[in-house]
Automatic annotation (TrEMBL):
This is Putative dehydrogenase. Keywords: NAD, Oxidoreductase. The keyword Ribosomal protein does not apply. It comes from the Bacteria. InterPro entries: Gfo/Idh/MocA-like_OxRdtase_N, Gfo/Idh/MocA_oxidrdct_glycsds, GFO_IDH_MocA-like_dom, NAD(P)-bd_dom_sf. SUPFAM superfamilies: Glyceraldehyde-3-phosphate dehydrogenase-like, C-terminal domain, NAD(P)-binding Rossmann-fold domains. It holds the Pfam family GFO_IDH_MocA. Residues 144-286 form the GFO/IDH/MocA-like oxidoreductase domain. GO terms for molecular function: nucleotide binding; oxidoreductase activity. Residues 15-134 form the Gfo/Idh/MocA-like oxidoreductase N-terminal domain.
Length: 378
């Protein structure tokens, strides 16, 4: 059922957007599309009626829907933007793509690689853009490192480390995040997918061929490590808490390189929230280290100058708003494709790179369950 509020002004050439989800992700999408030129949010969906009404009113969105199906059924939308629990990404994206809409989807692409592959197939068949909110790679410090590596190569990068570790941060009581069916996994798919994305993009997208992983749940299920101070996360939840709270994986690349990937929602290790991506090259090394969301001093460069080891910390400021950057790129991709012509105008933008991340994470969970290294399907 739809509810109307006052219509907003929109240019006829604007891309018409429907946003689904009212939590952190949906609100961030809504604000990013609203702030960017050339797009107008004309529909909003979510299951919290008061918040739905408040967001529609304050952002001037004319139509609202409780259920995503009613929003996707509209035939006047160019874009559907998905900010809902992971298990809903697949049905919403496939329905939207099959009805000719471009899709902006939160990470991870889906709860499993098979479902992610179906989304990429739907995007390819319809030749619509499927972009995923791997927003952290658009951070100013990650962009700085990408430029630095292009201009000042560090030799052969043989090993890297990528981790997102929380001392205390199992998502809240009653949250879908801790349920395998709703989320697909714990911190590895939730936080690890972001640092995996940063590392693979900085490394130039090497193909991951093998993974050996372990996954544990020693704290969360015992009621420790909750984000609001550590109440009994599992016993009060309406969802089964059946995902890991810590995972660690060694990935091997086709080019002989390797990556150690680690993610935790709770562990007695770091002080609070600790994000790190480190590349070890034969002629230098670089590190991104975000300690409790600090916004400067996050980049370190290690080299030898005249035979002596040096450490450089360039002054890079990290403004907020990297979701807006990825959405701006998404809109540019659509506009460029609309004018390009050709058979598959959006080739390369059908979610392929996000599918590879899903395959790696899937294989990591399977490896942890099997207790040995596994191949990552191509
Ligand atoms: N990229 C990032 O930095 C980032 C940060 C947080 C979350 N996320 C991702 O965003 C997604 C959502 O996370 P969140 O924290 O915003 O979740 P949330 O639980 O806060 O919000 C989920 C929203 O989905 C809506 N929803 C659920 N079922 C629905 C239905 N049938 N029809 C319409 N709406 C429905 C709910 O009403 C709610 O508004 C997840 O995939 C998560 O991994 C990404």
């Amino acid at each position: 059922m739809s509810t109307s509020t006052a219509p907003t002004s929109s240019d006829a050439s604007d891309l018409r957007v429907g946003v689904i989800g009212l939590g952190f992700a949906g609100t961030t999408h809504l604000d990013a599309f609203t702030a960017l030129p050339g797009a107008t949010v004309v529909a909003l969906s979510g299951q919290e009626p008061a918040r739905l009404a408040e967001l529609a009113e304050s952002r001037g969105v004319p139509e609202t829907y409780a259920d995503w199906e009613d929003l996707v059924a509209r035939d006047d939308l160019d874009i559907v933007s998905i900010g809902v629990p992971n298990a809903l990404h697949h049905p919403i994206a496939v329905a939207a793509l099959r009805s000719g809409k471009h899709v902006f989807c939160e990470k991870p692409l889906a709860t499993t690689a098979d479902l992610a592959a179906e989304m990429v197939e739907a995007a390819t068949a319809a030749d619509r853009v499927l972009e995923v909110a791997y927003n952290h790679r658009r951070r100013a410090d990650v962009a700085y490192l990408a430029r630095y590596l292009a201009e000042e190569p560090i030799g052969r990068v043989y090993h890297s480390r990528a981790s997102w570790l929380r001392r205390q941060g199992v998502p809240g009581i009653d949250s879908w995040f801790t349920n395998k069916a709703a989320a697909g996994g714990g911190p590895l798919i939730d936080l690890g997918s972001h640092v995996l994305d940063i590392a693979l993009s900085l490394l130039g997208e090497p193909r991951v061929t093998h993974v050996s992983a372990v996954a544990y749940n020693e704290l969360g299920r015992a009621g420790r490590g909750g984000s609001s101070g550590g109440g009994p996360v599992s016993s009060r939840s309406t969802h089964a808490f059946d995902v890991e709270d810590f995972a660690s994986a060694l990935l091997r690349f086709e080019d002989g390189g390797s990556l150690h990937l680690e993610a935790s929602w709770a562990s007695y290790s770091k002080a609070h929230e600790d994000i790190s991506v480190e590349l070890l090259g034969s002629e230098g090394g670089v590190r991104l280290h975000v300690d409790n969301y600090n916004t400067e001093g996050t980049v370190t460069i290690y080299r030898d100058v005249a035979g002596a080891p040096t450490i450089e910390r360039p002054a890079v400021q990290v403004p907020a708003g990297h979701h807006q950057s990825v959405i701006a790129e998404f809109l540019d991709t659509i506009r460029a494709g609309e004018t390009a012509g050709g058979e598959l105008r959006f080739a390369g933008h059908h979610g392929e790179y996000a599918l590879h991340r899903s395959r790696v994470i899937d294989a990591a969970y399977a490896s942890a369950a099997a207790g040995h290294e596994l191949e990552v399907p191509a």
